[in-house]
Amino acid sequence: MKILTQKMMWLGLALVLIVLIVFGVAMMGSVLGSKPKELPVALVVLDQPAELPTGGTISVGEMIREKLLSDPAMPFVWHLVDSEETAREGLDNREYYGVMVIPADLSSGLLSLATPSPIHPNVKIIANEGMNSQASLVVRQAMRQAMQMISEELLQLLLEQIGQQTEQIPVESAAALMTPVTVQEEVVHPPGVNNASGNAPGLLTQIMWIGSLVTGIVLFLASQKAVAAGSRRWTVNVLQAIVGLATACIASGFTVWMASSWYGMELANARETWLFLWLAGSAFFLLQSSLLNWIGFRSMPLLVLLMFFSMPLLNMAPEFLTQTTRDWIYSWTPLRFAAGGLRELMYFGGLDAVSSNAYVLWGVAVGFLLLLLVSGFKVSRATDAPSTPVAGD
């Protein structure tokens, strides 16, 4: 039972609890219990008022607009758009997670249900799956449920109108009234085949981060040995950067080839995916190597924690995250800029669609490249300075 008196055992148990707490916060704290809120979506109301047989007009599109905008349960921020074409441009520019289009003949089509020749109007729901698959699913479900409830209210309204005109309803009209509005769903910018339901950008980013970290550790150890053997540290650091960037090039190309050849991942443009992944891997390597050169292996916990805190966020829409997570992690982690840029490239039109994410990665790469090179001068002065003779020698 002497093991129970050993301080090391109790310190080890305490360390296990600390590790569980830290990684529990990293892997679960930022995502569990997350709820969608303020998802930007567009609403296009084209409906024109229709004349009622009993006099007056009815504008069903305006009624739907008021109900949608006033419903606090909807996790959306509605943007009113004049035309479907403009709304689709917003989808292409990653401004909206979805669009609802109210057709111009909605009111007149609903009134036709009381006639022997009913016409079913179609309300269109367009989901932007390329932005985020989870958010796209929420948009489709919430809009579908909203239209179902609105259809029930429209049914009551139509029955009242028909009751004012006649006591008998034609068979065709009775059948049409069962579904007064037809909901037509459409998905734009869908992920390709074997893209992990749209999560492939996050997976590729994680693979490149780990590969870059292994590269950085290996080259850091090799550079330490080279300096100990007498090589100039600044020269070693330059070669460390060159070899690391070349390795990132090979690793990114191999990752793209492996994903497409081994696992059948559909890529719209494999060459452009490779180029952007090379940029991301280079930025990761230079960041990791700079910290290793300046701090040493004491920087490893920081790099590991950065990876584990970032990984759960890469495939989530920012509107699903808490404000604390968005401000303190999501807003600055370099992994999310890589995943966001890959998402733009893979699902929205190649390198031409990549926005500020590429500029951020370029800034990270250039900034940490300078830090990596400067570390050679700093350490050189500390190690190469001549020793001061002690008086009396």
UniProtKB/TrEMBL annotation:
Report the locations given in the UniProt record: Membrane
Superkingdom classification of source: Bacteria
Citing just one GO molecular function, the answer is: ABC-type transporter activity
Gene Ontology cellular-component terms listed: membrane
**InterPro entries in UniProt:** ABC2_TM, T7SS_ABC-Transporter
Which residue ranges traverse the bilayer?
A: 203-222, 234-263, 275-295, 302-321, 359-377
Q: Which residues form a coiled coil?
A: none
Domain ABC-2 type transporter transmembrane as annotated: residue spans: 14-373
Q: What is this protein called?
A: Phage infection protein
Keywords (alphabetical) are:
Membrane, Transmembrane, Transmembrane helix
Q: How does it sit in the membrane?
A: Multi-pass membrane protein
- The primary location reported for this protein is membrane
